[in-house]
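## Example record

The block below lists the input lines for one assembly entry, exactly as stored, with component labels intact.
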Amino acid sequence: VILDGVEIEDTFAEAFGMRATRLVVTADSAGWARIAGETATGFATSVIACGAEAGIERKLEPAETPDGRPGIAILLFAINREALAKAVRDRVGQCILTCPGTACYAGMSDGDPVPLGRVLRFFGDGHQAAKRVAGRRFWRIPVMDGEFLCEDTVGQQKAVGGGNFLILGRTRAAVLAGAERAIAAMRTLPDVIMPFPGGVVRSGSKLGSRYKGLNASSNLAYCPTVRGIVATALPDAAASVLEIVIDGLSEAAIAGATAAGIRGACAGGKGEILRISAGNYGGKLGAFHFHLRKLLA
Amino acid sequence: MIRLTLRARPPFRLSLDGITPDRIARLGASELERLPLAQGNRRGVLGDWFRVAVAGDAADRLAISGGDERLDDVGAGMTGGELVVEGDVGAGAGTAMTGGTLRIAGSAGYGAAMAMRGGELHIAGDAGDRLGGALPGERSGMSEGIVVLSGSAGSGVGDRMRRGLIVVAGAVGPFSAARMLAGTIIVGGTVGEQPGVAMRRGSLVALAGTTQPAPGFADCGVTELTMMRLIGCFLARRGLATLADRAGPVRRRVGDLAQGGKGEILTPA
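Predicted structure tokens for the full assembly:
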């Protein structure tokens, strides 16, 4: 299969079941909402060492937020409900509670909820107060610029993490440009985040390592500088590979984002982008398989 | 829809307790006419004082034409559906209601929304004393739901109120938010004497200010509360934009210090 002159390899991305939630953060300006969102979703590229994967889903206009201020929607993913609860508590407590002027609301109400303001309220040292508005419970926690308003709990749901595709190209610049086009196309879609820096990963990994105690190591089959001495997956002309990893609230959301991303990467990449591939572990580890050619059919 | 039309002004009080859309939805006109109706100190049937008409659609909707301030307990205990009164009602409108919407085109008497536990009560006119208050002998008043009053209310608004939201576009009498346990009361007009006396928790938002500094309250200065914006947006989405527009910086007075001091009276800065 060729898309815009780029070969789509007959392979699939392998993804895993996760737990996810959405937070809505508002602030006095769109800029401060973005700062809060970026801080809270920092160091959240992979559950392996970060405990959670997180990203900004989209910017919210004042008319879309509970308090009529500019806001941002962020998605957080973790391996189970307990890990998600810890990530929510720590990230909101350290990054949103601390950020000037912010308030934090539940962006979903389904599922067995995880505590939000319910755990953070103790920061108020006895002067916190609960307030119910429109059937929803909020905590008002005194802070130095006024009050931090935070919803009592936030819903959570089953989700999918680890959708991905690889962009193989002739030069580093061309592959990066292709990845940027892919991310631009994917950022417009709801229910997904691309948790790595700028949405892009350069250090794809494989399971296992020659070193004891290391569970993962560099995916050498796609590393151009060692192609002559390892079993390589690179076409002769390829000099660079970048990966885009996608976490989504549903299988369909990841499928849609993958297709949009691949189309974005391929568009205008003729001659420079050589192949689109995907990462998997043979299909035995992850419950979700995204076959690239099926997605683009 | 079921329509009850008051035949004439009764010489005594009628209690419409139990005549709610959720309870009578599936009854025919003749069954409806035989429903018990307390008339003064006697018992009769609904047909004694109301003409009953049943239309096919919207079974959970009940309309009462020709309201009167002698119609007590309208919508008391209702759990769902919509009850519309095209006139005034007497005491105890929406008492202990747990769901549904009660709309009163006129004014309500004493004790509207007393012990209310859910649903919505809209009153286009004025309300008497103890709006959202507690039933006699009870320790807590309104414990959930929303009351929207377009006019003014008497004394003791939200007395012993535990939860929920009362919005009064007009003025309220003395002792509003007295002995309040929690919840929110928003008043667009003037607030009578001794607001928040013996209040434990909860918020009284007096958008036109209070006439006298409440005793037992500590001034915590002027602040901008995101909570006010949240409530403002909530009100605006319900078409109460005039009140929402006025939710700006506020002076926060915390009290009643004689009762733990976790309540607050908010007035415009």
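Chain B has four helices and 17 strands. The first strand of chain B starts at residue 2 and ends at 6.
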